[in-house]
Amino acid sequence: MERFEPMVAIDVDTKQAALKLFDELANDTDHTPIVKIGMELYYAFGPGIVREAKQRGFKIFLDLKLYDIPNTVKRAMTAIGKMGVSFVTTHAAGGSEMLQAAKTGLAEGAKAAGCPMPKLLAITELTSIDDRILHEEQHVDFSLIEAVQNYAQLSEKNGLDGVVCSAQEVKAIREVTGPDFLCVTPGIRPNLQVHDDQKRVVTPQQARELGSNGIVVGRPITLAEDPVSAYQTIRQAFMEGEN
Ligand code: C5P
């Protein structure tokens, strides 16, 4: 099973704090973490923050969760494809036409810039959505897990590489998708007592056992006194199954 290095969510609100984390993580010369740049950082500091991360040798997960009409998503993905990032996200809720447009745009951009094709991951249901919101606000009759399975299948059918999902959803997703379909899972805590605002958390080792291909870890690394050592411990538990 393909397993990626832990993806470190750089959720900070100043460029200085982001660069400090990049510099600290770059000190680990044995491993190269994947850094996840999300909307907060990207909207504040633009593509320059991606270049800063690239210069330090990181692979980049650009988590911008694109969701718009197919043509707009295609054009935005073309721009992203030229940036040399490794993972990109879009919402499965945009439908098959939008998902295909996302992939086409990404491929065109990557080809034009001579960059490798990034892995394209879908957001299924946000983990902030629960059954009540699904039924009462979105008028969806299916259960949450059925909706997640449906979106995972839709994503796979339209050529996406995988989904971002909770580790607890991996098993259900694997029931309806092929063996190479990727499940990347946030909500990771080395110490289950400290879960911040995450509702359901698992340890890196549990994520490994549940079949995650990659884990997204933010605060347990970014707020640690020694982010490199926190990264290394989490990495070892996830990549090698040791605590
Ligand atoms: O700090 P923490 O480890 O909770 O950060 C998790 C990261 O994963 C954040 O960037 C958050 O936005 C992201 N994420 C999540 N749950 C999802 C999708 C993304 O926590 N369902």
UniProtKB/TrEMBL annotation:
Reaction equation(s) it catalyzes: orotidine 5'-phosphate + H(+) = UMP + CO2
Record domain Orotidine 5'-phosphate decarboxylase: where: 5-234
TM segment ranges: none
Known pathway: Pyrimidine metabolism; UMP biosynthesis via de novo pathway; UMP from orotate: step 2/2
Entry superkingdom: Bacteria
Top EC group: lyase
Cellular component terms per the entry's GO annotation: cytosol
GO molecular function: orotidine-5'-phosphate decarboxylase activity
Enzyme Commission (EC) number: 4.1.1.23
Assigned keywords, A-Z: Decarboxylase, Lyase, Pyrimidine biosynthesis
An annotated GO BP: 'de novo' pyrimidine nucleobase biosynthetic process
UniProt subunit comment: Homodimer.
Function recorded in the entry: Catalyzes the decarboxylation of orotidine 5'-monophosphate (OMP) to uridine 5'-monophosphate (UMP).
Family: Belongs to the OMP decarboxylase family. Type 1 subfamily.
Protein name: Orotidine 5'-phosphate decarboxylase
